[in-house]
Amino acid sequence: MLTIARLFGKSPFSPLQSHMKKVSSCIKKLSEVFDELANGRLENIEELVSQVSKLEHEADLTKNDIRNHLPKSLFLPIDRSEILEILAIQDDIADQAEKIGHLLVLYPLKTPPEFLQGLNDLFARNCDTFWITRQIIKEMGDLLESSFGGKEAERVKGMAEETSFKEYQADKEMHALQKRFFEAAESFSTPVFYLYTQLIAEINQISHISEQLANRIRMIIEVK
Amino acid sequence: MSLDLFLLILLLVAGFYMAWNIGANDVSNAMGTSVGSGALTLKKAVIIAGILEFSGAFFLGSHVSQTVQKGLVNPDVFAQDPTILLYGMISALVATALWLQTASYFGWPVSTTHAIVGAILGFGVIVGGVHSVMWPEVARVASSWIISPVLSGIIAFALFTVVQKIILFAYYPVEASKKAIPVFTALLFLTFFLNFLTRGIGGLSVQIPPTLTVGLSFLIAAIAFIGSKLYVNSKRFTVETESPPPNLIQHVYSLNKALKHLQRVKLSTQGERREEVASILRSLRGVTDQVRNESGFYVKSNEFHVVEKMFSSLQILSAMYIAFAHGANDVANAIGPVAASLEILRSGYLHSTSQVPSWLLAMGGVGIVIGLATWGWRVMETIGKKITELTPTRGFCAEFGAATTILLASRLGLPISTTHCIVGAVLGVGIARGISALNMRTVREIVMSWVITIPSSAVVCIILFYIMRALF
């Protein structure tokens, strides 16, 4: 009789990691968009942004799969609500990537090079935060192995602290860029000006959400 | 005499079929985890399980067999017409076999133990009357069905919590397991031999004085301790990354704390002091980062893999333990009724003091082994693939908890369900945040199987009994 085998439910942790993998491929695609932008090859951007959208949709499908496979009868080492919350935050990052992509193709951008460089730098800073958080999710398996405690937990805590620091750096970068941008505000047309303020704010959201995600996982460890 | 001969053959075939069934279906629960975690190859697992199941059945199977044989229904009630008891036992066996076959066809989680006990009770109540059933004994058995999964869960929970505290949460898990594994090995041997020797070796009816038992058990445990110490210190278990001196790790912890406290001071003060604290904080940050880098604390290592590798050898021992305990308890389901019937066939009645013959236990053991060899290995293969969740550390804790409970119950002569004990133990590990997802529906299924199995097998047994009496 297979009673013992039936005792093990479908674990939500590896789907959680594969969802994060999809999210990170969104971010990767988006950085390709920024690369093309920096090189002035504007004709490829439209195509790349639609790929970002597609990846975001794939992430959505994985998300729904996890939600469907988390029945009430499943007993998990951490709360169901916590898993769903982590999932929701992860998904927010993918949504953010899509949003930024759409803003980039919304209006033909004739960006002066110094601001283009600024945008690129801001995006790179935000990605720094994201990649550390990505690493934390990757270590989820080891966290589980050590039942969310001990050395592994301590390491994840350290990484969460690092994301906070990177997020702070990204904020500083944003403020500097905003300042420069507003100083030159007179020279932009209204739609471009609006678009830029939007872009800066949305790009900076990536680091905010990543930090939030890192802290969410850190809370699981603290509560233990 | 030809009727007797026919009954004898029917009896042996039914008993053997039951033993075969146990070997085919239930042994995989014991050894499946070791196959799944890669601690044992399928072939080795089958051989080891075969040997241990047989010895469990042969050496310790008599206690539970006696309970099933004459502990549930009072044989004295049937003294004037023992053939009724004979028919009853045979129909109980056949009913259980039929019920199990049906259940496994539909994939219901039923227990052999519950089926046989239900069948015998059903026959006893309907044919012999309510007074023929020994209710205190039945109550003992029924309560053990609830207590045993809970107990094995508690043992597994406690053991896994200890493993967490001293190994998984340690700075150096590998070093910690090198210290802990010999202790666990000794503990395993100690509980095993204390259980095994105190009641005398049933199959051989050898009695060993208690002081000698305790002394012997401790001696064996000590030998096991030394042996496993030598084993874990052998070269095969080394961590790839160089371990930094242990006090560096301690420093990282302490510095982290200092940072936290200083931060708190900084936030709650103002003015000049705040500046002062902030400057201390800055330089402390620098030092902490440096120490962190030196300690390699945040570098990923393969320590957990080495720990699991070490525990996989320990898990082989615990799997053997559970195979032995399983043989000791479950052989009774097949042999108990056969022993009762044989006694009636041979001498015309069933003494309340009659023993279970050793050769019958051996036959049960052989039946289990054949069931394992012909069909059980296949179930083991499937189950092994499905329960890879039980890594060696978790598997060891679950198996130790379950095996100790089962062996204890076997010694007390209580027929319990080994599967339910293992389920209890796995839940125990899960509650200690050890397992990523447990399907609680299985627990409901188990309770359902109690509710359904006992009346069903009782009804089937009663029907068979009346058919048999009408025929002969």
Q: What are the main properties of this structure?
A:
heterodimer; A: 224 residues; mainly alpha; Methane Monooxygenase Hydroxylase, Chain G, domain 1; 8 helices; elongated; B: 472 residues; 2 domains; 79% helix
Protein architecture, described:
The complex is a heterodimer of chains A (224) and B (472). Chain A has a single domain (12-223), classed as Methane Monooxygenase Hydroxylase, Chain G, domain 1 (Up-down Bundle), CATH 1.20.58. Chain A is an all-alpha fold and 224 residues long. Chain A has helices at 3-7, 13-39, 45-68, 80-106, 113-138, 140-145, 150-183, 190-223; one strand at 74-75. Chain A has eight helices and one strand, in the order αααβααααα. With 472 residues, chain B is an all-alpha fold. Chain B folds into two domains: 2-172 and 304-471, no CATH class; 246-295. Helix content of chain B is 79%, strand content 0%. Chain B has helices spanning 2-25, 27-36, 42-60, 62-71, 82-106, 112-128, 135-168, 173-198, 210-232, 246-268, 271-295, 303-347, 358-386, 392-411, 418-431, 441-471; one strand at residues 438-439. The longest helix of chain B is centred in the C-terminal third of the chain and has 45 residues, at 303-347. At the A-B interface, α1, β1, α6 and α7 of A face α13, α15, β1 and α16 of B.
